[in-house]
Each structure stands twice: as structure tokens, then as C-alpha cells.
What we know:
single chain, alpha+beta, two-stranded parallel ribbon, 3 helices, flat
Amino acid sequence: MLDQYVANLGRLSALAVDSGDRDGNITRTSGVLSGRLAAFGVDHDFEIYDGDHVNRIAERLGTHVLPFFTAHLASNGR
């Protein structure tokens, strides 16, 4: 379905995908998604981190997710 939405995804100011290295199929499909985004020329960040789907949520929020939002979604001087 990615091809149906690629134009809209390309309009995003930032896009990130990550998963833990012990997330099983989620890790595999996240990698496939990243590859497909790259093939369509959609700029994005992709990372596989040490952990599973739930064991590092608080750490990931504080060290990656919130800083990502701050860097990419901050209002322009408002």
C-alpha cells in the first residue's frame, strides 16, 4: 500500500522508523518498510536498537523520540 501514499509521505517534514533487535517480525518488516521508503525516495531515519518492543520505551522516548520531535516539529519561532 505504500505506493498509494508515497506522495503524502514525501510531504512530511520528518519521518522515523525504529524497532528493537528482539522485536521479531516487527524488526524485519520495519527494515522492509525502510527499504521501500528509500526506493521511493522518501527521506527518513531508520534505526534498530538493542531491546524488544516494550523494555526500553521510557529510555527511547527521552533519548530519541522526544528529541526527534523537538528537532523536526518545533514551530518556527512561535
